[in-house]
Predict the structure of Pyrimidine-nucleoside phosphorylase.
Amino acid sequence: MYDLIVKKKMGKSLTEEEITYIVNGFTKGEIPDYQMSAFLMAVCLKGMDKSETIALTMAMAHSGDMLDLSEIEGIKVDKHSTGGVGDKTSLVLSPMVASLGIPVAKMSGRGLGHTGGTIDKLESFPGFSTSIPTKQFIENVNRMKMAIVGQTANLAPADKKIYALRDVTATVDNISLIASSIMSKKIASGADVIVLDVKTGSGAFMKTLEDSISLAEAMVEIGNGIGRETYAVITDMNQPLGRAVGNSIEVAEAIQTLNGQGPEDLLEVSLTLGSYMLLGAKKTGSVEEARKLLLQTITDRSALNKLGEFVRAQGGDDSAVYNSDLFPKASIQEEVTAGKDGYVTKIVTDEIGMTSLVLGGGRETKDSIIDLSVGIYIHKKLGDKVIAGESLATLYGNNAEKVKAAKERCLKAYTIEESKSEPTKYIYGIVTKDGLIRF
């Protein structure tokens, strides 16, 4: 290991065997933390080339369970988001894509941060289970083209161990390490086609567009480099996606979207991601045709009915799919009002996320219990005109002290100025194996 640290410190490329040796040795406890820390710092300073990044990804993917989806008929598609505020696209596009006969076999995580993950949000349906056996998972996808389960504890364990060390040694911000961390879990999850939603802006992991593009390109290169058709869509996170931030409140907004009444940005991002899932699955040869097919699933209610079928198949009560008023309601409703006239020129999206966490909608530690009924409904977004005293957002909570703290935080997230700012784009570009298309 000493020799390999020196080799990387000198800026030389490591072989696949050397990288596998490092990953396996550290995962088994044979290589100590201090040597792995030195290696990770050398990677941050000297970088990794394409072949090294692919080798690191595959070594981490193979460090635990590799989900075998070969019994599922057809081309299996999956979508992964790098994380944002109000990001409920999986709940919209999975039933749309599945209702067109394309298998969506998805492994999702629980949220650690401002809101729950897709798994937590789905538990807004009473009785819904994400811990179904693999056999049932495969049967469900074959029968109705859709299933979403929690990640197994042994999915890419090397990544979990390495990330924990990166987190405390200032070695998180390296594109190769970030890309291999995300892609190792997606590859272990077994899908044939991977569509990545790479967020950019104040509520994203990557704050600048150029960093987001670099990450998208690295992940697409890894996916296609190992034979998985991979696309990345770079989407805006300078404000929450849609208007709902929380858990059951986000599920309700996803249902609203499947009813053809959702916010424009959520629909646009879902249609774009879904279009590339259809392209990858060879359902159509063009993005334009894919969009038409996806929109038809809203018009004919097949996507909404698919969501209901999916919820029932995993033990849930699907009544709320057809009547969102049945979701749990918070006991306190509080308006966050503007202090002056003007236009919304900035929203610190991370702070809106933290407002949800303060209300109880997220986890501060992995053992925190999420309150599915709390959240924020955003009334004013970037570019909107506001009048003093007008509501910027409505907070939903169950604890008066938490609501008070959340209100202060939410208000500070908004900047209101006299002149209107330029509108933000919903989508900045698409990365395919052929390169970047900027919008």
About this structure: The chain has 17 helices and 14 strands. The radius of gyration is 22 Å.
